[in-house]
Structure formats: structure tokens, C-alpha cells
Amino acid sequence: MEKREAFCLGNFIVEPGQRKDGFLLMGEGEFQLPATILHGEKPGKTVLITAGIHAEEYVGIQAALELAERLDIRKIEGTVVIVKVVNREAFELRRGSESHADKKNLNRVFPGTKEGTWSERLAYAMEKELFCIADYYIDLHSGDSYEQLTPYVYYAGMASAEVVSISREMAQQADVPYMVCSNVSSGGCYNYAATRGIPSILIERGQMGGWTEEESHSTRRDVRNILCHLGIYQGEKDYRNYYPLEVKDVCYQAANEPGLWYPAKKPGDMIQQGETLGVIKDYEGQILEVCRAEYGGVILYQTGSLQVLQSGPVIAYGRISRESDNRKERIAGYWSKRSSSFKVQRKAELHSVMAERWLTEIRKYLPEGTLKILDVGCGSGFFTILLGKQGHEVTGIDLTPDMIEKSKELAKEEQIDCRFEIMDAENLNFPDATFDVVISRNLTWTLPDAGRAYEEWCRVLKKGGLLLNFDANYGAYDATDTASLPEQHSHNMLGMEMLKENEDIKKQLPISSYIRPAWDVETLGKLGIQELSLDLGVGKRIYVEKDEFYNPAPIFTLCGKKEGSE
């Protein structure tokens, strides 16, 4: 392979496989910014990472410092340019969001001008010298000295369709509750970069001009996951606690006059239309202004100081758009690819000793008589058909149309009268108190919102009905590691590409980072499930032989009874 060329930026010359730290000279030497460049041995894209555009937003700055120190040059394919503090002068003089020289907000003057004020010249230098080398851009921020916020991420929305799409994908890798599509092209460095063809995001974490190790670590982890997603950093993505929900129609409310601000809510709180969000008073305690929600949504940030400025920011909130969550589409697509092999395997399982073993486990919990049972996430219909053969009235549901089609085929082959429907486990189309039993096998680990699913399952149970869930903490296991599986196992037939897709999907699901089944027990307890029992040994009783059915993950059984009686 031909040797890669050195990377040149300003006064930095970095050879392949090397890193360089120091002060990057920009704007013909007027600006000297602390920077690190990591130039991988292998060719690839270049990502620009900046912090300190707002000088008192310390979480982003500390995260940039840690990234510069801890990213492994051996794992980089391409180049990573980290400018640790863009507005260095304001940072060193503790000037907050305004530059010291001209009292301007650097993030509001892009693209800047060569002959303009100090901030405008710095913005111009960034565009001409940094944007031209970047394929992707990540800007790190946090709450200024007066700002409280919940962690969230902006992605550029005023650019070409391709740039917006890639920017959104980058935002989706952040471990934050919410993401916002920006609808401006010049209000922010990252927005202007996007108009120049660079997919760009801005991460917000931390508040009130402070920082913690946990916050800087989380931002550093977000950036690392984004670099892995882009193929620039060769490592495994970390699991996350959140998957960002889309927030639209963000309302930025400002104060009509100066005064004392008394918020009624906190960042991250859900709000309803017309609800009071806070009041502004004068020195005698008289109310000058009442801030009310124009519509329902979530609070992203608000002023945390006692004082507010006339026309200054007070609070920002937006509507949550769950329809924009594309994980379920991806999950259904993945299981569609596996539907045919699943049918073959489950048919064989129905005619093996495994069927009787599963019945033995299930019968421990079921009451006498013919029961109305819902099999959630039925896959190719194993539990539905197995229980149908016992004379129960069973309905199987699955999100994946191909799985439902294969379930119907298998039920017909087995001559069992079962009902199958395409349905979302988190949004059931059944009335309250419909079923005697809700049963599931190896499903909750695949759900974007398992808590919502449990709530729905409890809703459709009759009083005194049983919830029976067989699952494992699959988030703790690497699907690509098949060393402990027998040669004829289905995972060895899938191919590494499919197994990697499985891992990638898992890392977008918060449940993969939960401590299970402790999380399940706590969640079900809050939902009114009583007489909850837990069995950690079911897997060893089911998977005795190391054959094509073998599952090395420790399966657990959760059985709970809904409060009340019929």
C-alpha cells in the first residue's frame, strides 16, 4: 500500500500514524488555539472537533482535552482535528459567551469577515482554514453560567438532504434523551459548516458554567461512538442509557422586561399546553410576566439564575416526535432477513425434546382451564403453536410482517388454529383486560422502550392475570463471539455481517445497558404487578445439549400476577 502523505494544517505537519499537540496558528497568526491532530496510518475521512466557542461552557472543553489525550492513534483511519478552546482569549479571561475584544457572541457571527471585528475575523479564519479540511464536524457545548439544561444534541437541518441525513445519523449516536433539528443556517458555527457541505452536530451537556467528570466522560463517549459510526475510529461502540427522541417545533421564549425569574419546572420535565413555566417579578414581588407553554412537550433548557435580561432567554421547549424514531423499522428489517431460517428452526424445535421442556416450565405458572393467551413477539410462532396444541386460545403478534407470514405457514403445517397479527409490542391494539396470560420469549431485549411494553402488557391483562416473560440480559453478550456455540448452531450460519448488525442494533437500545433482571423486577413492581417470582435457572434446564438450539446466555423467567381478581 502506498504510503500516506503527511497532514498539513497551518503550522502543523503531522506524519501518518502520528499525533501532534500545540498551538494552531490561524488568521495569519493572529489566533493561537490549543489543538491536537491525530493522523492515522490508514487513509480515511477527516473529522473536526471543536470546543470553547462559548468560553464558559466547560464540559465540552474538558471532553475535548480528554479526547485529545485518550484517543488511540492506532485505531484511527483518517484524521481527527481537535481544537480544544476556540475562543481562547475569552476562556482565559472568563468572559462567558461573549468575546473579550468586541463583546460579540462568536457563535452568531458566522461566516465572519476578514476585515471585521475580532470575533468576525476568528469566524472567517475557521471557515477558510478549518472547514476546508473537514468531512464531518462535531461542536461541543454545555450550559453557560446562567443556563440549566437537560443533555441533548442539535443536528444541522438547513443543508442538502444528504448532509442533513448524515448529520441526523451522527446525532443518533449520542447518549442523550433528545435531539433537535436546527432550522437556521447561520445561527451557529455547526449550522454554517453544514451549508458548506459538512455534516455537523452540536452536543449540549452540563449546566450553570460547571462541569463534572461524569459529564465530560459522557460527552467523550458520545464523540467516540460517533467516530466509530463514521468508520474513523476502529473500536466497538459503547452501550447507552438513552436513544435521542426527535424534538420539533422548539419554542425559545425571551423576557419582555428585566426582572427576577422564578421557574416552575426543571429541564427535562414534560409540560402541557397552557401550563405555567415560571414567572418574572420585580423587587417588591409583583408579577411582571407569566411564562406559559404554548404547547405540550419537553423543556430543553431554561435560565437558572435569579436575574433575567430584557429580551434575554428564559426557557426553551419543544414537541417530542416519536414517529421520527426509525429503530423499529431497522429492527423489523433485521428480523425479516432471519424469518425463513427462524421458521425452519422453530418447526424442528416443535418436534424435539425442547417442546416438552418448554411446556414443563410454562405449566408451572398457568392456572387450570382453557386460557386466552397473548404471545408477544411471537417470531415464527413457536409459543403460539405450542400453547395452541394444549387447547388454549392463543394470539401471536410480531412487529415483523415476514415473521407473521412464517407463523401462519407453520401453524397451517402443524394444523393448529391460531390467530396472528402484525403489531407493535409497545402499542397493543387490544382493549384493557383482554387476556388471562401475556407470554413472551426473547423479546424485551430487542425493544426500544421496554418499560412502555411492560405497561401495555399489564394493561391488556385481566385482573389476576399472569405476565410470563422468558428473556436474558443479551446486552451483556457479544453476538459476534460464537466460540462457545456448536458448529451447527444458527448463529454460525448467519455470517459476521448479520451478527455485527445485531450488535449495532443492541447498542441503540437503552435496555442493553440495564442490569437485568433487576430492572425488570423494579419496573413491573411499579406497574402494579404482585406475587412476582424470578427463576434464574430455566436456561440450564432447557438447553441441556449443545446443539443447534443451544443458548449460552442465562435465561431467566419472570412471572407476575396483576393486582385484583375477576
The total of beta strands comes to 26
Q: Biggest sheet, in brief?
A: 13 strands, mixed
State the low-pLDDT regions, or none.
Answer: none
Q: Treating each run of at least 4 consecutive H or I residues as one helix, how many helices? A: 15
Bin the helical content: 25-40%
Query: Termini, distance in Å?
Result: 74 Å
Taken from the alpha-carbon principal axes, the silhouette is: globular
Percentage of residues in strands: 25-35%
| Overall average pLDDT | 92
**What structural category do the secondary elements indicate?**
alpha/beta
Radius of gyration: 28 Å
Structural description of this entry:
By secondary structure, the protein is α/β, with parallel strands linked by helices. It contains 15 helices and 26 strands. Helix 1 packs across helix 6 (about 215-230) and helix 7 packs parallel to helix 10. The N and C termini lie far apart (about 75 Å). The model has no long low-confidence stretch (mean pLDDT about 90).
Break the fold down into its secondary structure elements and pairings.
Blueprint: E1 7-9, E2 12-14, E3 18-26, E4 31-39, E5 42-51, H1 58-70, E6 77-83, H2 88-92, H3 118-129, E7 136-141, E8 147-149, E9 152-156, H4 161-172, E10 178-182, H5 189-195, E11 200-204, H6 213-230, E12 245-254, E13 259-263, E14 270-271, E15 276-281, E16 287-292, E17 297-303, E18 307-308, E19 313-321, H7 327-350, H8 353-363, E20 372-376, H9 382-388, E21 393-398, H10 401-414, E22 419-422, E23 435-441, H11 450-460, E24 461-471, H12 491-494, H13 496-506, H14 518-526, E25 529-535, H15 538-542, E26 556-562
Parallel strand pairs: 5-6, 5-7, 7-11, 9-10, 10-12, 20-21, 20-23, 21-22, 23-24
Antiparallel strand pairs: 1-2, 3-4, 4-6, 8-17, 9-11, 12-19, 13-15, 13-18, 14-17, 15-16, 17-19, 24-26, 25-26
